[in-house]
Amino acid sequence: MKNLGYWSVVSIGIGGMVGGGIFAVLGLAVQMAEGGVPLAFFISGLIAMLTVYAYVRLSVTYPSQGGTVEFLNQAFGSGIVTGGLNVLLWLSYIIMLSLYAYAFGSYGKVFFPAATQTIWKHVLISTVVVFLTFLNVLGARAVGKSEVWIVGMKVTILFMFIAFGIVHVNFHHLAPSTWAKPISLFAGGMIIFLAYEGFELIANTAKDVREPQQTLPKAYYSSVGFVIVLYVLVSMVAAGNLSISQIVAAKDYALAEAAKPFLGTTGYTLIAIAALLSTGSAINATLYGAARISYIIAKDGELPTVLEHKIWNRPVEGLLITSVLTLLASNFLDLSSISLMGSAGFLIIFAFVNAANVRLHRKTNSQIWISAIGAIACITAFGALIWRISESMPSKLWLLGIMLTAAFSIEAIYRAITGRQIIQSNFIKGNPSNE
Q1: Mean pLDDT (the chain, rounded)
Q2: How far is CA 435 from CA 67, 308, 361, in A?
Q3: Contacts of residue 64, Cβ cutoff 8 Å, sequence gap at least 6
Q4: Mean pLDDT across the stretch 14-21?
Q5: How many CA atoms lie within 13 A of 314 on its CB side?
Q6: Beta bridge partners of 34
Q7: What DSSP state is assigned to residue 180?
Q8: Which helix (H) or strand (E) holds 371?
C-alpha cells in the first residue's frame, strides 16, 4: 500500500540530512573555509542539488528499496566495478555512523568535568552504539515512531539558534577579507559534503510513495533546498558570533559554543542536548539502513551470504558487523579523518549515480547534460578535496586509500573465493545491456 505523501517524504529527506552532520562538522568547516564558511556550505549544497536530478529521474523509473544499489546495478550491470561501489556505499554509511557517534560523545562530554571529558567521550560513543544496536535487534517500534518528533524538535532548535543569533552577527567576521583562499574554501565545502548525505534515503521509499511522478521531484528538491538555506544560516550565525580561533578551539562541539554569546549557558546546554538527540536518532536510523544495505548487496551476490540471513525478520548479522566497525572507527579516528572518508566516499558514489542517469537517460527521460555536469562536479570536488588534504593533512590520505582499496578488494576476494565470475562492468565496456 502506497501511504507516503509529500510531507512524509520531505521529512525523510530532511531527517536524513539534518541527522547530526551539522553538529559534527561545523567547526571543521570553519577551520578550512574560515569566514567563508556559509559560502562553503552553499557550494557543497549546489553539488548535492545537481545530484538530486539524477536521483529524481532514477527513483521514478526504478522504484525500489535498494535505492542507490539498484540504480548502479541497472546502469552498469553486475560487475566488479558495481560490486565495489556498492560495498563502498556500505562502508560510507559506516563512516557516517562513526561521525554521528563521534559527535554524540563530543557533545555529551561537555556535561562532565574537564579532567575526565576524554574518557567520557569514548564511554558515550561506545554506549550509544551498543544500546541502539540492541534496540534495533529488538526492533523497538517506539524508537522509530519518535523519529518524526525528534526531527521536528532539532529543526526547531536550529531555527531558534538562527532567530536569536542573527541579530548579533558581526558581519566583519564574514567579510571576504576573512575568507580562506579559494581552493581551501572549496575544499572546506567538500570535506563537510557528508552533511548533505541523507537525501538519497528518499529513493529507498519510492515504492511506497503516493503519486511518485509528482511527489518525488517536489520532495527531493524542497528538502535539499530547505537544508541548504538552514546550513548557510546556521554557519553564518556561528561564524558571525565567534572568532575563527574560538570555533576551532571548540571544533568538536562548535555549535553549542557558538550559542553562548547570545543565549548564554542555557543556550549552550540546549544546543548540546539537541545534538545528543539529533545524533542519537541519526545513529538509530542509519544503523538499520546500513544493515539493510548490506542485506541487499548480499542478496545481489556482492557480499557474503551470511549478511543475507535474517533473525526475527531483521538482517542481524549485517547490523552487528556494521556496529562493530562503527565502534572501531568512531573510537580510533579523529573528526577530520572521518569527515574526509565520508565526504570522499559519497562524492564518488554520487558521481557514479550521475553517470548512471547519463547511461540510462533514454529510460529515465532525462536531460543528459544535467547529470553530466553533476558527475563532473562531483569528480572535481573529489579532486579538490584530495589536493587540499594532501597539502594540509597528507597523513589522512592513507585512511581514505585503505577504505577505497578495501571496498574493491572485498568484492574481488569474495568473488575469487566463491568462484563467481568477475564480469567487467558494462560502464567499462561501453556496452550497456539495457539499452
Answers
A1: 85
A2: 20, 30, 10
A3: 70, 203, 204, 206, 207
A4: 80
A5: 17
A6: 179
A7: P
A8: helix 368-392
Q: Provide the CA 354 distance to its chain's centre, in angstroms.
A: 17
Q: What is the fold of 6-429?
A: Amino acid/polyamine transporter I (1.20.1740)
What's at 47, amino acid-wise? I
- CA–CA separation, 356 vs 321, rounded Å? 29
Contact at 8 Å (CB) between 296 and 66? yes
State the cell numbers at 16: 536524513
pLDDT tens per residue, range 194-223: 899 889 888 888 888 888 899 999 999 999
Predicted TM-score (pTM) above 0.70: yes
CA dihedral 391, 395, 397, 398 (to 10 degrees): 150
Place of cell 562548535: 254
CB 377, CB 49: distance < 8 Å: no
Dmax over CA atoms of the chain, in Å, equals 65
In the predicted structure, residue 121 carries a pLDDT above the cut 70: yes
Q: What's the one-letter identity of residue 372?
A: A
Q: What is the pLDDT of residue 295?
A: 57
Range ranked top by mean pLDDT from 24-28, 310-314, 355-359: 355-359
What sign does the dihedral 75-76-78-84 (CA atoms) show? negative
Q: What does the alpha-carbon distance between residue 30 and residue 238 come to, in Å, rounded to a whole number?
A: 9
Q: What is the DSSP letter of 316?
A: H
Handedness of CA 56, 58, 60, 64 (dihedral sign): negative
DSSP 220: H
Q: Can you tell me the distance from the alpha carbon of 85 to that of 54, in angstroms, rounded to the nearest whole number?
A: 17
Closest of 42, 21, 24 to residue 33, by C-alpha: 42
Instruction: Dig out the grid coordinates for 137 from the structure.
Output: 535487534
* Phi-psi category of residue 365: left, alpha or beta, with phi > 0 → left and psi -120 to 50 → alpha: left
pLDDT in tens, 315-351: 577 778 889 999 999 999 999 999 999 999 999 999 9
What is the Cα–Cα distance from 22 to 375, expressed in whole angstroms? 24
- In the numeric block, the cell 534515503 is attached to 201
* Rounded Cα distance, 106 and 109, in Å: 6
DSSP string, 194-219: GGGTTGGGGGGGGGGBSSHHHHHHHH
pLDDT interval class at 289 (50, 70, 90): low
DSSP SS3 for 286:
helix
pLDDT for residue 415: 72
Asked if 285 and 15 count as a contact pair (C-beta separation under 8 A), the reply is yes
